[in-house]
Amino acid sequence: MSLDEKACFSERPESRPAKYPCPRCKRVNEYTIRWMRRTKKDRAPQGGDERDRAQFAKLRDHLLRLDDEVTCKTCGKKFEIPSLHSLMFVDQLEGLPKDEEADVSEATEAPGKPMDATTKAALPARFTRPTKGWRG
């Protein structure tokens, strides 16, 4: 028996903001892109053999992009979304715009606190050495 993909995932629609440049007017605008979030179910579907259970164990939660084109907010021309990512795994989404909880916690940790020399990352030695000229 072949493993049916719809039987392994629960689907839920989702929208995420993204910024894209228009190829015609060259302006960057923010667009709302529709995605389908597919979450792996707790158990493998009934009636599967050993091969189907092994395939089910390898499945991961992911997002599938539904929108392929957007309309420019400035000039009104439709253009394709310039991205190779029509499918993204949920574990790769760390720090993207939809994860507001992480952004809010970072912003509330130190609002307006200036960075001092102890909190700055140290530069590697190759950037702090004096130059020897072009022959060096």
Protein described:
The chain is of the alpha+beta class. The protein has a domain at 5-94. It is built from four helices and six strands. It has helices at residues 5-8, 50-58, 100-109, 125-128, and strands at residues 9-21, 28-40, 62-65, 69-71, 78-80, 87-89. The strands form two sheets. Strands 1-2-3-6 form a four-stranded antiparallel beta sheet. A two-stranded antiparallel sheet has the order 4-5. A hairpin with a 6-residue loop joins β4 (69-71) and β5 (78-80). The longest helix has 10 residues, at 100-109. The protein is flat, with a radius of gyration of 23 Å. The model is unreliable at 99-111 (pLDDT under 50).
Write a concise synopsis of the structure shown.
By secondary structure, the chain is of the alpha+beta class.
Note the main attributes of this structure.
two-stranded antiparallel ribbon, four-stranded antiparallel beta sheet, single chain, about 140 residues, alpha+beta
